[in-house]
UniProtKB/TrEMBL annotation:
Protein name: Podospora anserina S mat+ genomic DNA chromosome 1, supercontig 2
InterPro entries: Ssr4_N (IPR013859), SWI-SNF_Ssr4_C (IPR046464)
Domain of life: Eukaryota
Keyword Coiled coil in record: yes
Boundaries of every SWI/SNF and RSC complexes subunit Ssr4 C-terminal domain copy: 249-298, 300-438
Taxonomic source organism: Podospora anserina (strain S / ATCC MYA-4624 / DSM 980 / FGSC 10383) (Pleurage anserina)
Coiled coil: 321-348
Biological process according to GO: chromatin remodeling
Region feature (Disordered): 207-260
Length: 452
């Protein structure tokens, strides 16, 4: 217990600062999470990264409020704070550092709920004082000091030496279990040097191959693998325990840094595969049923409504063919209907496109004449300086005929101004028709001369 932690697999977001309202909400939800949603597992903590949040269970009857080692060197003892109702406790470490760091840049806060002594509430909420929210974050600027100004007490140095000894013996096999299932809690006896109980027995067997030597720790009397020490962080003999947040995934859906297999070495994948197969074999061997009664799970989510295997009765195949042909005909009819709708819609699109093009041609159309007072056109022979005054390739009559043919209707002229009532308006008298005189005729009262 001085070095191991019981941590929940429930994930919290990475936050450099936490608010008391959020922590209170998390602690109120913690009993239901521990009971129904997320399992727990025993592990070491090796300097968790800043912004990391854990849900832990700690037996206060045995450990009290003392926290197990986490790999950090803390400059001062924890400071306990409480709220005015005395139903919430905060244990605060202002500044700490990892081995090898020069500045105290880390802090830790632990939160838990407690039963209020003086408060009189009719129906108090159900809380678990053994559940803790532990948050690691950066220290404040005023709490950052050189680590050389702090000495390491002999008691703290002894704790760190014990951690190093435990890390050299191997890491704890991660076996998840529900907190309410006390019967199946895994037992963790204290390890002895030379024979580690933390790894599966098959890993303890000495093997002569080079791959086996690099894959796991040596046998009795052999030093631990150097490869494992090289993979650890500087200043730590072994990166066992909980993975750092730099390489861990924030959430199951957060894959911008890769999935879980991108952060696992081949040895770790082989270890997990061996553990999973070992647990499956334990379930099979400890099952009350015989081996012949066990079947592999089906890939189907559920069984079909009418499962049937064997030979069909006479006539059933013909009925099935008739139903299949009827279904095929129904599908073909639906396909033809969809095609007709598509053709109709495409025809409307083409019609709208043709009308839009005709309108664009009419916008730039300009009549041509010899009169200089033409406002909407241009004089014949004038140079075409503006592109929008260019004469279209088709005349107005051709454009109108194409639109009438496309729409199937006759185009009519719509005047801009319509006369509602004549009123005192009088129609202009028609101009008299001028009759040209015939050849040889002379004006009335004139003289006519004839040649000889």
């Amino acid at each position: 217990l001085p070095h191991v932690h019981l941590i929940s697999t429930f994930r919290y977001p990475l936050m450099s600062r936490v608010e008391l309202n959020d922590v209170t909400k998390w602690l109120m939800q913690a009993p239901s999470i521990a009971r129904d949603k997320a399992p727990f597992y025993w592990t070491y903590l090796d300097c968790p990264a800043d912004s990391t949040i854990f849900l832990m269970w700690q037996p206060t009857a045995r450990r009290g409020n003392e926290f197990s080692s986490d790999g950090y060197y803390w400059a001062s003892p924890e400071v306990m704070l409480s709220n005015p109702l005395n139903n919430g406790l905060i244990y605060f470490q202002k500044c700490g550092w990892r081995a090898g760091e020069q500045i105290t840049m880390h802090s830790r806060r632990r939160f838990r709920l407690a039963h209020a002594r003086d408060a009189q509430v009719a129906n108090p909420p159900q809380i678990d004082p053994n559940l803790w929210i532990v948050h690691y974050g950066p220290s404040e600027n005023q709490d950052r000091y050189p680590t050389s100004s702090f000495g390491v007490p002999p008691q703290i140095q002894s704790i760190m030496n014990n951690r190093q000894h435990l890390f050299q013996l191997g890491q704890i096999v991660r076996k998840e279990f529900m907190l309410s299932d006390r019967v199946n809690w895994p037992q963790i006896p204290f390890p002895q040097r030379g024979q580690s109980i933390y790894v599966p027995p098959m890993q303890q067997q000495p093997m002569n191959t080079r791959t086996a030597y690099l894959g796991g720790p040596g046998g009795p009397g052999q030093p631990p693998s150097k490869r494992r020490g090289q993979q650890a962080q500087p200043g730590h003999p072994m990166g066992a325990g909980y993975p750092s947040a730099d390489g861990a995934l924030d959430d199951d859906e957060d894959v911008h840094r890769g999935d879980m297999f991108d952060h696992l070495s081949p040895r770790e994948m082989s270890m997990h595969r061996y553990q999973q197969n070992h647990e499956w074999m334990e379930e099979i061997l400890s099952s009350p049923y015989r081996i012949g009664q066990l079947e592999s799970g089906d890939v189907l989510e559920q069984l079909p409504k009418k499962p049937y295997t064997g030979r069909l009765e006479p006539g059933l195949a013909d009925k099935m063919r008739e139903r299949a042909q009827a279904k095929i005909a129904e599908v073909q009819a639906e396909i033809q209907k969809l095609k007709a709708q598509h053709e109709k819609r495409m025809g409307e699109f083409k019609q709208n496109t043709a009308i839009r093009d005709a309108e664009a041609e009419l916008r730039v159309y300009a009549g041509v004449g010899s009169e200089p007072w033409r406002l909407e056109g241009r004089v014949e022979g004038e140079e075409e300086e503006e592109s929008y005054n260019k004469k279209p390739s088709r005349s107005i009559e051709e454009i109108t005929a194409d639109v009438e043919k496309l729409l199937g209707t006759k185009a009519i002229t719509v005047p801009e101004v319509s006369r509602v009532q004549d009123g005192g308006y009088q129609q202009l008298a028609p101009e008299p028709e001028i009759i040209a005189p015939s050849a040889g005729a002379c004006p009335r009262g004139g003289w006519a001369f004839r040649g000889a």
